[in-house]
């Protein structure tokens, strides 16, 4: 039999199995047992609650609901495993206990069907905590066939496209997203306890600023205007600082029209917070404490393992300027570089590509990306970024070529970005205008002049510290996930033909 004939045979067999399921549903409906007419089911316990509290629940009556994951029919009695949000639990189903008609129905149920069960908790002869079923109700009929349990769902493309099936078949995937929720909850608890106020700002914006990224463009029909999806939360949150809300934060989706990789998804979740009357040193302390609190309260330890490497969050995070880090990890000394020409000559010497428009500070940033970033495994703050790459950060007093900005790196990845925020509206206008020049030279990620934001700054903005933390990368770290798609329930995928 050829491969094509074999595939056609499998498709025919599958079609027949799917038809059997639909026929069973039709039979149930004809008998007045349409599962899709059942509106609710009272659940008293979940699987792991029962297993973890057997001493108090032994012989107690419980009701659970979940999906049939396996069945063993043995004449007048059967065993089945049901999966709920917490895991699986075994059912012992006897004809003499649930009744002949119910048992006949139960034997027709398929893997994947959702049932409600009432019964008593007990242990089998093999000491497995189980439920002796006294009543079983079909709550939803599965008309598709789940992947074969032994091999699970391993095709990554199908896993990402059919996350609902992935969650059913792979318990570790479900655990990842449960942990993600706990991480975000812990972040909120930590910030709320420090007096921060959670707010919401616009997603559709006239001017997509606050970061170096290419925005998505869309059209607002009601106003007949083009608008962008936000690339950052920064500029609206700063307006709130100007308005007198001294500590604000937002956890929300942002959108950047960039490529897909293990670290990048065009829409992702960002935490940004701003605090009046502090600087980037205050943000370093806040950031360090936040990472420790989340690790301790979600994982139970500040020492974690990521892809086989131990990461110690309990020790003080190392602090290096960008120039210091470049010298430490590559031997390249940028401290003596005074001009753009000298910087470009240094890049040429080290075979690093740059563009004609790049200035001295841009070259330092390019050298850092090339030689340093992937070596920063343990938590490290990289301080004092060039002014050319930091249009919203305050210049360092006495050293205006650099800014009071840091990025946090862990496992060779940027985890946070923070500034002593620029609050001088005249300087900010000059920075925006310099960005406009870069945009005119073809830099699609450069910012534009934002007159509305400049007007807000002219009202008066207090000294402020601000930070942005990528939630998805944080979750990757705390769930030992190598790819960003593994921590996004529905990652961006190319449409199937």
State the gist of this model.
By secondary structure, the protein is an alpha+beta fold.
Describe the overall structure:
Keywords: Aminoacyl-tRNA synthetase, ATP-binding, Cytoplasm, Ligase, Magnesium, Metal-binding, Nucleotide-binding, Protein biosynthesis. The chain is of the alpha+beta class and 497 residues long. It has 2 domains: 144 residues, Nucleic acid-binding proteins (OB fold (Dihydrolipoamide Acetyltransferase, E2P), Beta Barrel); 258 residues, BirA Bifunctional Protein, domain 2 (2-Layer Sandwich). The strands form 5 sheets. An 8-stranded mixed sheet has the order 6-10-11-20-19-18-15-14, with helices on both faces. The protein has a 5-stranded mixed beta barrel with strand order 1-2-3-5-4. Strands 7-9-8 form a 3-stranded antiparallel sheet, with no helix packed on it. β1 and β2 form a beta hairpin. α8 crosses α16. The longest helix is centred in the first third of the chain and has 28 residues. The chain is elongated and about 90 Å long. The model has no long low-confidence stretch (mean pLDDT 94).
């Amino acid at each position: 039999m050829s491969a094509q004939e074999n595939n056609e045979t499998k498709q025919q067999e599958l079609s027949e199995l799917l038809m059997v399921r639909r026929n069973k549903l039709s039979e149930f409906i004809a008998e007045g047992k349409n599962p899709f007419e059942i509106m609710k089911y009272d659940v008293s316990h979940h699987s792991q609650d029962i297993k973890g509290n057997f001493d108090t629940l032994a012989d107690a009556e419980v009701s659970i609901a979940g999906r049939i994951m396996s069945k063993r029919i043995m004449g007048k009695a059967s065993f089945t495993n049901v999966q709920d949000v917490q895991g699986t639990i075994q059912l012992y189903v006897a004809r003499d206990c649930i009744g002949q008609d119910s048992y006949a129905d139960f034997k027709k149920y398929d893997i994947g069907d959702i049932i409600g069960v009432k019964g008593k908790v007990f242990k089998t002869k093999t000491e497995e905590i189980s439920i002796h079923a006294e009543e079983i109700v079909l709550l939803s009929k599965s008309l598709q066939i789940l992947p074969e349990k032994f091999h699970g769902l391993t095709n990554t493309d199908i896993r990402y496209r059919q996350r609902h099936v992935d969650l059913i078949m792979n318990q570790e995937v479900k655990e990842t997203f449960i942990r993600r929720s706990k991480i975000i909850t812990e972040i909120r608890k930590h910030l709320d306890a420090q007096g921060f106020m959670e707010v919401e700002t616009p997603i559709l914006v006239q001017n997509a600023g606050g970061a170096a990224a290419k925005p998505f463009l869309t059209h607002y029909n009601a106003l007949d205007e083009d608008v962008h999806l936000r690339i950052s939360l920064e500029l609206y949150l700063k307006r709130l600082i100007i308005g007198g809300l001294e500590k604000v934060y937002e956890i929300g989706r942002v959108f950047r029209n960039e490529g897909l990789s293990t670290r990048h998804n065009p829409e992702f979740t960002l935490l940004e917070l701003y605090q009046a009357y502090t600087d980037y040193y205050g943000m370093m302390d806040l950031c360090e404490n936040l990472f420790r609190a989340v690790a301790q309260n979600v994982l139970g330890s500040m020492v974690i393992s990521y892809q086989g490497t131990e990461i110690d969050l309990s020790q003080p995070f190392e602090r290096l300027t960008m120039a210091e880090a470049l010298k430490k990890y590559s031997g390249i000394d940028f401290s003596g570089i005074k001009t753009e020409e000298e910087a470009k000559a240094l890049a040429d010497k080290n075979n690093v590509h740059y563009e004609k428009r790049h200035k001295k500070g841009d070259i330092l940033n390019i050298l850092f990306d090339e030689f340093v970033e992937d070596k920063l495994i343990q938590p490290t703050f990289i301080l004092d970024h060039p002014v050319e790459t930091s249009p919203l950060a305050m210049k360092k007093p006495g050293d205006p070529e650099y800014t009071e900005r840091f990025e946090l790196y862990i496992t060779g990845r940027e985890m946070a970005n923070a500034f002593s925020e620029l609050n001088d509206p005249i300087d900010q206008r000059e920075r925006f205008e310099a960005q406009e020049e870069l945009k005119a030279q073809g830099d699609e990620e450069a910012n534009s002049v934002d007159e509305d934001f400049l007007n807000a700054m002219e009202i008066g903005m207090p000294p402020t510290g601000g930070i942005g933390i990528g939630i998805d990368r944080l979750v990757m770290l705390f769930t030992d996930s190598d790819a960003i798609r593994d921590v996004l329930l529905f990652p961006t995928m190319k449409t199937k033909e």
